[in-house]
Specification:
By secondary structure, the chain is an alpha+beta fold. It has two domains: 227 residues, P-loop containing nucleotide triphosphate hydrolases (Rossmann fold, 3-Layer(aba) Sandwich), CATH 3.40.50.300; 90 residues, Nucleic acid-binding proteins (OB fold (Dihydrolipoamide Acetyltransferase, E2P)), CATH 2.40.50.140. Helix content is 24%, strand content 31%. A six-stranded mixed sheet has the order 6-7-8-3-9-10, with helices on both faces. A five-stranded antiparallel sheet has the order 13-17-14-15-16, with no helix packed on it. A four-stranded antiparallel sheet has the order 2-1-4-5, with helices on one face. Strand 7, helix 5 and strand 8 form a beta-alpha-beta unit. The longest helix is centred in the middle third of the chain and has 17 residues.
Length: 327
């Protein structure tokens, strides 16, 4: 039996459809990410799963039992599901250990382990008004985890964080999954946050799930440009342009466009088997650069870890037929 089962969830607000017939399952210990543009219904979906918003139709089942909404119970929320909002709050000017003790259902040893995992064991003697935003977020998270949930819902946990605190919370979420054995659903806009973490990704648009699959599947084989764009930069080539790269490849000229990620176009030192392109721009990202190169009338994005380039430099690029994906 699946840990979580959504069947036909729909929701309207002021006559607009926020969610349309959402159905999916999540197995225990599965790490699921939900990705979509602003307004696609991600946060509303999380709140319905948690029992904080009543769906207009459909049902949510957690461990085989229906999750009741606020119209069905006096105090909304399911005890086995923890939801961390983007707008979490902590009582001001309280000792951190006081805030945590109010909800603790764990032994002292278990709580100490949890505090270490959340990277807050050194903050217990501080007051809540002495904390940074990232520290407050991790304390709010620990407070939820002290209730011993089996499913953790995280709504944009990386937003409004600097690089240091973003990396910390990323490590915390990883350890929650592996060390505490808690299933997670995470909403994020940043592909770097989810591709290396998730077991399954749900792609949402206008209140519907438009594609689901493993990170590799949705990144390499997106169903359309919308999905492709949410997970990073890409190139689109017509069938005739692909033939220019790979003349031996049999392609119907009426084929859909080929999608290629920047790292799938290679810079080669072998001029005989490559095409000449001219560098238009270089964006430097530390361990790699993203070039904009001109091939005929086409501007292509190329990711490379090789050297440094100047505008008007000539580079030689190649493409493998195994990387071709038509949308």
């Amino acid at each position: 039996m699946a840990l979580l089962n959504l069947a036909g969830i729909s929701k309207q607000e002021r006559g607009d459809s926020i969610l349309k017939d959402i159905s999916f399952q999540q197995e225990a210990l599965n790490k699921m990410a939900i990705v979509g543009e602003t307004g696609s219904g991600k946060s509303t979906l999380l709140k319905i799963i948690a029992g904080f918003i009543q769906p207009d139709s459909g049902e949510v089942f957690f461990e085989g039992e229906k999750v009741k909404g606020p119209l069905d119970v006096l105090i909304p929320g399911h005890p086995g599901i923890a939801y961390l909002s983007q707008h979490f709050e902590l009582r001001n000017n309280y000792w951190v250990e006081e805030v945590l003790l109010y909800t603790n259902k764990q032994t002292e040893t278990e709580a100490e382990k949890l505090f270490k995992i959340c990277r807050i064991d050194h903050l217990l003697k501080r007051r809540t008004n002495q904390l940074s935003g990232g520290e407050k977020q991790r304390i709010a998270l620990a407070k939820l985890l002290l209730t011993s949930p089996k499913l953790l819902l995280l709504d944009e946990p990386f937003s409004n964080l600097d690089m240091i605190h973003s990396n910390i919370i990323r490590s915390v979420i990883h350890d929650i999954s592996t060390q505490l054995q808690i299933s997670c659903i995470l909403v994020s806009h940043d592909p770097l946050d989810i591709l290396s973490w998730a077991d399954e990704i749900l792609m949402m648009k206008d209140g519907e799930i438009v594609q689901s699959g493993s990170p590799v599947e949705v990144y390499r084989h997106p169903i359309n440009e919308y999905v492709a764009g949410l997970l990073g930069p890409y190139n689109l080539l017509s069938a005739s342009e692909v033939k220019y790269f790979l003349p031996e490849l049999e392609i119907n000229e009426q084929s859909k466009k080929a999608l290629l990620r920047p790292e799938q176009i290679k810079i080669s030192s072998n001029q005989e088997k490559a095409l000449n392109a001219v560098v238009q721009n270089q964006n430097y990202y530390g361990h790699y650069s993203e070039l904009e190169v001109k091939l005929g009338d086409k501007i292509l994005k190329v990711k490379t870890e090789q050297g440094s380039y100047q505008k008007a430099d000539t580079v030689f690029i190649t493409l493998s037929k195994d990387d071709i994906w038509f949308i």
